[in-house]
Amino acid sequence: MDIRQLRYFIALAEERQVTSAAMKLHMSQPPLSQQLKLMETELGVQLFHRNGRQLELTASGRTLYEHALTITRLMDEAKAETRESGLGIRGKLSIGVNTLSDSRLPARSACFGKSTRR
Fold it and tell me: Which strand (E) or helix (H) includes residue 51?
């Protein structure tokens, strides 16, 4: 199972229909249904009860849904923090000084303590 499959699963769980989830994901139904089947085979459990076109999460599906939300959120945060670090927006600044007798240092270093987090 990979992050892409987890995103597919989340869409299925939230839309509760393969057709709606496929539209949301900008893909056709057959590949999405196939991915769901692969996930269920890999995990060895049924993730949804199928009632006509409606999908209802099983207990196993609800467990995976909660984990999938956490995993995808953490992945998105990791990407954002890595990008920000590469751009110099986020990171750690260490300054070593022998003395604080220079009155300009506190004013100049104050801007580094300001948070740019959302």
Answer: strand 48-51
